[in-house]
């Protein structure tokens, strides 16, 4: 049974504001083909409605699917997903279904039906691509509005991350297959 619970959209920005490596999922509605890629560049950009920015190279197959279908998913992998994260970030999905190739199980997102990953992961969001602006034609940054979000109820509690377990830390990419984890939670004094 899944430990994932819905996240109030007013807290969706908190799923990304600490800069984790993410997995971007996409699906071609016509053919049913799906894809997943790793990305290190993402961030929340607005609270209400919740909007995020991701960077996907214009030549990537994920970018083609996202622009064609107007949707994408964001998955926040945990430490246990390090091998999947590195693998899907190192290969193209044009010729293979990376979910099948690497044995990555999926669930369907509740609003857009995008492939989401809960096993070994800590959170996910379904997003609608926002209309292009002039800059989008020149740059690799895409903007999306979060329409649904969920997180592991043992790692994201009452709208906040609780990094108290080595298995429930997020990944942060350093390059060449090296990552650091989110680390120990510390608090400021009142």
TrEMBL record:
Gene3D superfamilies registered for this protein in UniProt: Electron Transport, Fmn-binding Protein, Chain A
Flavoprotein listed as a keyword: yes
Stored SUPFAM superfamilies: FMN-binding split barrel
Pfam families named in the record: Flavin_Reduct (PF01613)
Entries under SMART domains matching the protein: Flavin_Reduct
Source organism (scientific name): Pseudocitrobacter corydidari
Cofactor: FMN
Protein name: Flavin reductase like domain-containing protein
InterPro entries attached to this UniProt entry: Flavin_Rdtase-like_dom, Flavoredoxin, Split_barrel_FMN-bd
Assigned keywords, A-Z: Flavoprotein
Domain Flavin reductase like: 14-163
Similarity section: Belongs to the flavoredoxin family.
Domain of life: Bacteria
């Amino acid at each position: 049974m899944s430990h994932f619970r819905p996240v109030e959209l007013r807290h969706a920005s908190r799923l990304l504001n600490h800069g984790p490596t993410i997995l971007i999922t996409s699906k071609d509605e016509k053919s049913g083909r799906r894809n997943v890629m790793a990305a290190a560049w993402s961030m929340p950009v607005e609270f209400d409605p919740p909007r995020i920015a991701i960077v996907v190279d214009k030549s990537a197959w994920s970018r083609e699917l996202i622009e064609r279908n107007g949707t994408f998913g964001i998955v926040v992998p945990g430490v246990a997903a390090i091998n999947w994260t590195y693998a899907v970030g190192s290969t193209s999905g044009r010729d293979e279904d990376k979910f099948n190739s690497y044995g990555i199980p999926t669930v369907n997102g509740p609003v857009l039906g995008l492939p989401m990953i809960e096993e070994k992961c800590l959170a996910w969001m379904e997003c609608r691509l926002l209309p292009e602006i002039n800059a989008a034609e020149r740059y690799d940054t895409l903007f999306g509005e979060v329409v649904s979000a969920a997180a592991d109820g043992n790692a994201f509690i009452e709208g906040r991350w609780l990094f108290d377990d080595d298995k429930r830390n997020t990944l942060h990419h350093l390059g060449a297959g090296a990552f650091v984890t989110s680390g120990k939670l510390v608090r400021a004094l009142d």
